[in-house]
Write a structure and sequence with these properties.
Blueprint (H helix, E strand, L loop, with lengths): L1 H18 L6 H7 L7 H5 L2 H40 L6 H22 L3 H10 L1 H7 L2 H4 L1 E3 L7 E5 L2 E6 L8 E5 L6 E5 L8 E14 L2 E10 L5 E8 L23 E8 L5 E7 L6 E6 L14 E4 L10 E9 L2 E8 L8 E7 L6 E3 L13 E10 L5 E8 L11 E8 L6 E2 L4
Antiparallel strand pairs: 1-19, 2-3, 3-4, 4-5, 6-7, 7-8, 9-10, 10-11, 11-12, 13-14, 14-15, 15-16, 17-18, 18-19, 19-20
Amino acid sequence: MVAAVTLGAGVLVAAIWTDVQARARSRTEQAALAAADAHLATLRHQVAVTRFAKAVTRAQRDALQTSIDSTMSQLATTNGDLANTNGHAFTQGLGIDTLQTCLGGVKSAFGHIAANNNAQAAKDISAVSGACTQLAGGASTGLVYPFDFPDPDVILVGQTYFAYATNSVAGNIQIIDSTDLSHWTAVGNALPSLPAWASANYTWAPAVANIGGVFVLYYAVDVAGSGQECISAATAAQPQGPFTDRSTAPLECQKALGGSIDPASFLDTNGTPYLVWKSGGPGSSKIWAQQLAPSGTAFSPGTNPTALLAPDQPWEAGTVEAPDLVVRGGHYYLFYSGSDWNSGNYAVGVASCTGPLGPCSDASPKPILASGPGVAGPGGESVFADRSGNYWMAFHAWVPGAVGFPNSRDLYLRRLRFSGPAPAVTSSG
């Protein structure tokens, strides 16, 4: 019974976090319906679609709350029966206790969300992250944060790792931190407010860099009233924010190419900052790079965007996105995601570049990270070095059996090796 309940709860927990926050996850709502309209910006702002998505979310949330209550009641009865039978707590009841802890925290988060106390809801989820990770088999798959955390970006500041991700119940840009890469705690909303030109609740895919002692947050956001996908920048004196965006217009839009999203920062070996990003949608996407000014909040005068990569491999299915540029041993590697993000076909590839402005070419004809045991549709990758100089890849992925909107894309970490002809991702954390 323990195994059956644990398995069921694993799928349940994977879905719960997204189901209660999907109102704020605009990009997920948009792309889930992308097949109905190739113009994502227009689709995103169709009122009928938005209301339908919210209605579905409420109905699913109510059903999940009922399931949690029922499951916890059954677990309490089972634990009691086992204790009475044996005269003491059943040793295998540890699994049940862990499950009760996980579901109890999620249930508490539901209550705070209903009371519009999202900050406390995020803390409730954080408090049971360890228990929920155990249930989901984190050690064997690389799972470190079993709640919705799409498009992650991880940086190391001093002795602390900070991870940023697409909007959630925690706010415009959610942020968590860790001192050991295994236990993560919700910090809150890294970007409490948006500039006047931006649409509320339409933020995703953040990236943070320390440029000249100032932390710069790059993120994707819609222009109010137009639905145009653009990139903007905010700054803060510390990695946990709060970040402030004082801009009067986006940093980059590429309207004629279908919009600009998925920004990532890159500091070359000489300290020169660059921005890489993606334009367009399926069939027209490209990855670009451009040198930034020393402040990191504007492009260097006289420079223009340079195309680095377009889809040319069968597995990419016409889409390349979520770029992350890394230099290692004098070699430049462009990591990227390809194929349909809302499916198990999503995967991570890598290209080799001659420099931050290319040219670049695929380093492997197949993904370096794809669906496998315990992981479905990995992508949105971020590469970083730990305190010992070891490289890791942070990425989001679905739980097999719960793939696609509105299920959760959880945070995974796996080691990255640079010893072969192309970087390789380990099979587990």
